């Protein structure tokens, strides 16, 4: 199983939200580049970065911070995956041109599927589609809008486009540490051949092992590391 430590950025600060709500942010530091380097030193091969300010604004909002993160992660021998606010082709192409190894598109996949499909075609292996779900239906626009699209339907569509992977988040569990949506994530993985990355609710090494036993092939983990419930080294060793 691949393990991707997460850095969520809000106004240049490292934070974690609970259930995607900006009003429920906990700050964990003001030097995201140092955090990213620490993750790489611990053995992470890819760091997952979320521009929360961009997600809420609808367009990338922290380009200088992201540029520094890209440079520092690459200097440390890692790769970087960026998400948040990438809702147009111009924004997506700019993130890739800035050095992001992979980018994540979510709202675009629902509201502008032709562009999402074209990005997957033009940039094979570099486009991840976010499947953010609330009660089984896709949520967009920073999780503030719930659509009528079943998560499994978007997953199959993204695979047909040629997406590199799917990032699946159960919005109700994100940032809570009360356990991941093991069955829902595993069920989505059974729908597609491309990897499904589990995100949200991981709070222990046993959570990681439960996902691995269920056939999930990658995870994003954040709050559990920041709050000392697990170390990244422990999680990597368990996989």
Topology readout:
Elements (H helix, E strand, L loop, with lengths): L1 E9 L2 E6 L2 E9 L2 H11 L3 E6 H6 L5 H13 L3 E5 L5 H9 L4 E4 L1 H5 L1 H10 L4 E8 L2 E4 L4 E6 H11 L3 E6 L11 H10 L4 E4 L5 H9 L4 E4 L1 H4 L5 H7 L1
Parallel strand pairs: 1-4, 1-12, 4-5, 5-6, 6-7, 7-10, 10-11, 11-12
Antiparallel strand pairs: 1-2, 2-3, 7-8, 8-9
| Number of helical stretches of at least 4 residues | 11
For CATH, the homologous superfamily is named as Aldolase class I
Shape: globular
Q: pLDDT average, as an integer?
A: 93
* Structural domains: how many: 1
| CA gyration radius, whole angstroms | 16 Å
Give the strand tally.
Answer: 12
Describe the model.
- By secondary structure, this protein is of the alpha/beta class.
- The chain has 11 helices and 12 strands.
- It has helices at residues 32-42, 52-57, 63-75, 89-97, 107-111, 113-122, 151-161, 182-191, 205-213, 223-226, 232-238; strands at 2-10, 13-18, 21-29, 46-51, 79-83, 102-105, 127-134, 137-140, 145-150, 165-170, 196-199, 218-221.
- It has an 8-stranded parallel β-barrel, surrounded by 8 helices.
- Helix 1 packs parallel to helix 3 (63-75).
- It is globular, with a radius of gyration of 16 Å.
């Amino acid at each position: 199983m691949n393990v991707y430590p997460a850095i969520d950025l809000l106004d240049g600060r490292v934070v974690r939200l609970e259930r995607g709500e900006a009003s429920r942010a906990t700050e964990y530091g003001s030097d995201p580049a140092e955090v990213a380097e620490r993750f790489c030193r611990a053995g992470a091969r890819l760091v997952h970065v979320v521009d929360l300010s961009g997600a809420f604004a609808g367009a990338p909002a922290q380009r200088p911070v992201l540029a520094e993160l890209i440079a520092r992660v690459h200097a440390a021998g890692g790769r970087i995956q960026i998400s948040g606010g990438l809702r147009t082709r111009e924004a997506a192409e700019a993130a890739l041109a800035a050095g992001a190894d992979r980018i994540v598109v979510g709202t675009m996949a629902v509201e502008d599927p032709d562009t999402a499909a074209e990005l997957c075609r033009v940039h094979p292996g570099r486009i991840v589609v976010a499947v953010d779900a609330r009660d089984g239906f896709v949520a967009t626009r920073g999780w503030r809008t719930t659509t009528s699209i079943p998560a499994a339907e978007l997953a199959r569509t993204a695979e047909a486009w040629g997406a590199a992977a799917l990032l699946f988040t159960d919005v109700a569990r994100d940032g809570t540490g009360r356990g991941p949506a093991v069955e829902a994530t595993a069920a989505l993985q059974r729908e597609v051949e491309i990897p499904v990355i589990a995100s949200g609710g991981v709070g222990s090494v046993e959570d990681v092992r439960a996902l691995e036993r269920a056939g999930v092939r990658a995870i994003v983990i954040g709050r559990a590391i920041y709050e000392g419930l697990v170390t990244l080294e422990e999680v990597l060793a368990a996989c």
